Amino acid sequence: MPKVYMISDHHFGHKHIIDFESRPFTDAEEMTETMIERWNAVVGKEDRVIHLGDFSFLNMEKTRSIVSRLNGSKMLIMGNHDRGRSRAWWLEAGFQEVSEHGIIYNGFFLLSHEPMYMNKHMPYVNIHGHIHGQKYEGKQYINVCVEHWDYTPISFDTIKAMVVPNEEQ
């Protein structure tokens, strides 16, 4: 049965992110190849990945090349660095679905690029990216930036297990 994975903030082609976020790569090429390998090590051809933004800083040809090498069908929720390009651009780059805004997923999870305001009375868990190595406190926020997950997509089942006790799943 196909699985669903989530991840954000690859910043493909952004060499300065290595220094900004202390990523363990010598250059953008090593970063790209390592992140593609880690994606494909867990995501199968039939699986689905929801990318929560800031995918690539590269041109169409190079971005399309990376997308085509990644296993699974891919949805993009556009991040602040993706919004300079149209939905059509990202679809042409190889994403099967593109959303300019956050979405409600599985009835209980608010998927967004930037963390959304949540209070303890809101019935959602916000799965987000954008803040890289930082983390919000509490079970209402799950940061899926690559820095938190060893540059590897995290399964939605793992995310659910973090916030929903077994008897409620």
Write the layout of secondary structure elements.
Elements: E1 4-7, H1 16-20, H2 28-42, E2 48-51, H3 60-69, E3 73-77, H4 87-93, E4 97-99, E5 103-105, E6 109-111, E7 125-128, E8 141-143, E9 154-155, H5 156-163
Parallel strand pairs: 1-2, 2-3, 3-4, 6-7, 7-8
Antiparallel strand pairs: 1-9, 5-6
Protein name: Phosphoesterase
Organism: Paenibacillus rigui
Keywords:
single chain; 169 residues; alpha/beta; Purple Acid Phosphatase, chain A, domain 2; Phosphoesterase; Metallo-depent_PP-like
Description of the structure:
The protein is of the alpha/beta class and 169 residues long. It has one domain (4-168): 4-Layer Sandwich (Purple Acid Phosphatase, chain A, domain 2), CATH 3.60.21. Helices cover 27% and strands 18% of the residues. It is built from 5 helices and 9 strands; from the N terminus they run βααβαβαββββββα. A hairpin with a 3-residue loop joins β5 (103-105) and β6. The two termini are 17 Å apart. The model has no long low-confidence stretch (mean pLDDT 93).
Describe the largest sheet. 5 strands, mixed
Low-confidence stretches: none
On the 0 to 100 scale, the average pLDDT is 93
> CATH homologous superfamily, by name?
Metallo-dependent phosphatases
Overall CATH class: Alpha Beta
Helix content: 25-40%
Please state roughly what percent of the residues sit in beta strands, choosing from under 5%, 5-15%, 15-25%, 25-35%, 35-45% or over 45%.
15-25%
CATH topology: Purple Acid Phosphatase, chain A, domain 2
InterPro entries: Metallo-depent_PP-like
Protein name: Phosphoesterase
